[in-house]
Each structure stands twice: as structure tokens, then as C-alpha cells.
Amino acid sequence: MTRWIVINLPSWLLLAGLIVGIAGGTAIIQAFVRHRFPRLKQGEHNEVAQFVFPVIAVVYGFLIGFIVLALWGQVNSADQTTRTEGAAAVQMARGRNVFGKAESARIRQNLMEYGRAAAAEWSHAAGGRTTPEAENALNRLHSTYENIKPRSDTQRAFLASSLASLRELDLARTGRLLEARSNVGPPLSLWMVIFLTTGLVLGFSVVFGSEQAQMHYGMVGAVSVLVAANLFLVTELSYPFLGEFSTSPEPLNAVVNVLSSPQ
């Protein structure tokens, strides 16, 4: 469900929807509670609420902070994996001129095809899926290097280095796809804990007694916006390859840029 939200909604619309939905829903509940239980306005229970609410707020803040930190680590890991893939391809591109013209041209063509295909499949790869174009381009790149016959010590050294970069690229690509497939945000049980603590935070802010309605609505509204912002962060960071804070295919585009630039 959250994957569908991240894919189909712009970040600003998701944030606005969470703020309006949570703040609006909480305001309706607050109006009902103030009307249905008028004695709550007197604040006789505030001493208990002032003791319990900070405990709930601290637990909620720690939980959200821990989750956001863990999810941000996933995004950084995915970003590093993609950069490793792109850097390996760039190294191969820069070392291709050591070989003969025909071999260099084949390497250039195969790297260009792979860079473009891998960037083009990004929306599919974000879900851990591949496209035949990218897979075929990578296979052709393997075949090209396997068929190179070095004619000097320099070519042998560069061929060994290029094969190592190719293995690194292959490993990084596999890791990127596995990360996209497995990093799917908090499990259902953790989402339930998030919603439970969120409900407690909003609930205690609603039942807090205050004779001044405007001040009470303002306080609950501020808490609602804070909760909405936290849920927005968790949702956006749940998928390292989707959304506003995700990694991008720019390291793969860099390969095409290097090969397209004049020599």
C-alpha cells in the first residue's frame, strides 16, 4: 500500500494530504469530544495528563527517530551501491582506449547500451525487476571482454583491471536489485506500533482540558502537523529507490556522459 502511495503521489501532495487528513480528522474528533464531554474543559484531569503525556511523547519521538534513522541508512546504502555501479562502468570506459580500435569501439558501444538501458529500466528496477534490454547489454559487455586477446603487458594489465571493474559492476547491480526488492519499509507489526503511539499522542492532546477553545484547537493542530510530518518521512524513506528522498540513476547516466564527451 505504501509503495503504491510513493509511486503515484508527488511528495508535496502526500505531505499536504497527510496534514489535511490528520489535522482535519483530529479536529472533528476534538470538536465531538468537547461537545460530548463538556466537563473535560475544566481540566481536572490535567495533572494526570501532564504526567503521562510527556512519557508517551518521548517514547513516540524515540521510536520515530529510530525508524527514520534506520530508513535513512537504507537510502544511503542504496545510493552507495548505485554509485559503485556507475563508478565501475566509468573506469571501464576510461580504460578502453588501451585496446585496439575495434575492441575499444565494441566496449564503448556495449557500455553506452548498458548505461542507457540500466537508466531506462529504473522504474522497474525500483521494484527489484529487470528488463531484457539491460540484461542483454550486460551479457554483451561480458562477451566483449571475454573475447579480447591482449597483445602487450599493458593490455593484459588493463584487461585484468577492466574484468575486476566488470565484476564489481555486476555485483553492484545485483545488490541494487536485491535492495530494491527487500527494502520495503517497516513491517506490518511496526506500522501498528507507529499508528498506536500516534493515536496515543493525538488522543492525549485532544482530551487535555482547556477552557479556551482556540488555544486548544491550535495546540492539537500543531501536534497533528508534527505527527503528519513524521508519517511523511517514514513513508518517503521506506523505499530507497522511490520518492523524493530516493537515490537516482545519475551515476549510470554519468557513464553515457563520459562516453559521449569528445576525446
Q: Could you give the topology of this structure?
A:
Elements: H1 2-8, H2 11-36, H3 46-94, H4 101-120, H5 122-125, H6 132-146, H7 153-182, H8 188-207, H9 213-237, H10 250-260
Helices, by number, come to 10
Order of helices and strands: HHHHHHHHHH
Distance between the termini: 48 Å
Q: Please state the average pLDDT score.
A: 85
Class from helix and strand fractions: mainly alpha
* Low-pLDDT residue spans: none
Net shape = rod-shaped
Assign a percent range to the helix content.
over 70%
The radius of gyration is 27 Å
Count of extended strands: 0
Description:
Helices cover 79% and strands 0% of the residues. It has 10 helices and no strands. The longest helix has 49 residues. The mean pLDDT is 85. It is mainly α.
Key attributes of the depicted protein:
single chain; 263 residues; 10 helices; 79% helix
Summarize the structure.
The protein has 263 residues and is mostly helical. 79% of the residues lie in helices and 0% in strands.
